[in-house]
TrEMBL record:
<protein>
    <recommendedName>
        <fullName>Methyltransferase type 11 domain-containing protein</fullName>
    </recommendedName>
</protein>
<keyword id="KW-0735">Signal-anchor</keyword>
<keyword id="KW-0325">Glycoprotein</keyword>
<dbReference type="GO" id="GO:0012505">
    <property type="term" value="C:endomembrane system"/>
</dbReference>
<comment type="similarity">
    <text>Belongs to the methyltransferase superfamily.</text>
</comment>
<dbReference type="GO" id="GO:0008168">
    <property type="term" value="F:methyltransferase activity"/>
</dbReference>
<keyword id="KW-0732">Signal</keyword>
<keyword id="KW-0808">Transferase</keyword>
<dbReference type="Pfam" id="PF03141">
    <property type="entry name" value="Methyltransf_29"/>
</dbReference>
<dbReference type="GO" id="GO:0032259">
    <property type="term" value="P:methylation"/>
</dbReference>
<keyword id="KW-0489">Methyltransferase</keyword>
<dbReference type="InterPro" id="IPR053223">
    <property type="entry name" value="Prob_Methyltransferase"/>
</dbReference>
<dbReference type="GO" id="GO:0016020">
    <property type="term" value="C:membrane"/>
</dbReference>
<dbReference type="InterPro" id="IPR029063">
    <property type="entry name" value="SAM-dependent_MTases_sf"/>
</dbReference>
<dbReference type="InterPro" id="IPR004159">
    <property type="entry name" value="Put_SAM_MeTrfase"/>
</dbReference>
<feature type="signal peptide">
    <location>
        <begin position="1"/>
        <end position="22"/>
    </location>
</feature>
<keyword id="KW-0812">Transmembrane</keyword>
Amino acid sequence: MGFSMGLNLVLLLAMVATNILSLYHLSSTLQSPKPPTQQPVPDHLLHQLNTIRATISHLTRHQPTSITPSPTTTKPSIPQDLLLYSHLSSIASACHNHPDLLHKYMTYTPYSLCPLDSDLLAESLILRGCHPLPRRRCFSKTPPKPPSSLPHNPFPSSFLDSNVIWNKYPSCKSFSCLAKQSPGLGFDLNTEISKFMTYKTELDLPIPQLLQVAKSANSVIRLGIDIGGATGTFAARMKQYNVTVVTTTMNFNMPNNEVVAMRGLVPLHVPLQQRLPVFDGVVDLVRCAHAVNRWIPLTMMEFLFYDVDRVLRGGGYLWFDHFFSRRMDLSKVFGPLIGKLGYKKVKWAVGNKTDSSGLKNEEVYLTALLQKPVSK
């Protein structure tokens, strides 16, 4: 009995001593300086990569099983074609924030007609950062009577209703309806034909004046991009001066892309947050239309400006056409942000935004023409 108690006491003392030594070793290890470890990849980039990997892992891990779901379960299963595509290529990391829209977009019958609401779903996802979207194996419906040739005049007397599938759009079923319901948005040709040609205030920059500025600087404008160009009126007018302009535009429940194509121009269905699908230093002019304004998150706007710089050649022009913001923000935020580009100010005009929103928020318009230095 005494021997066993003595043995237990020795074991207890040994265990206490071992713990004390372990604690001493741990504290000395923590106190001893370690050389800093290098991280060749930035933390924010690692986070983005891990988010993308986690999204793909989530999609492949949650495949439908043979277990019968309970009647109360409402969460849809992952569509098979979405799972299949996730093995072929990655999708935008923002897609996992909107699984219901993504699942609905990818729920279709392969090798048949795409669902009628595909375009609206696609644009809803794109505007939420889910871009590029997964590809699909279905056939898109097209208008039954496409035009036989491209128009020579990008300002026709009217747009043909037969060139649009109106079932996609809930509010209007004709161009005459759009012209009345949405004045000023590019569907009233009587209004559009005078745009970019007249000078009324300092905020206007008529195309003849723009081309004269370039000529006086011994520069040339041949190729351009119109960011947020709606129905392509700027590109249409530039076409008449033998300048090729592609238009980035979203539909927003209106057939903007269809109208650009009907004019014999090229629409790019891309959001503002996407990298411009153009090679470096190949365009002479980038116009930022009304879509580029103070509602864009500042970080996204900064990336947009530097992507514009990427595609502009040295000596090319960046045109902010009626950029609106609060007056204070223009002087303290957006002006300095634009100034970081280091471009030459050819024109810089500021005027009050006189509609109800502008008066309420003390907003102003900025029209600026900037020239990229040749040395860049």
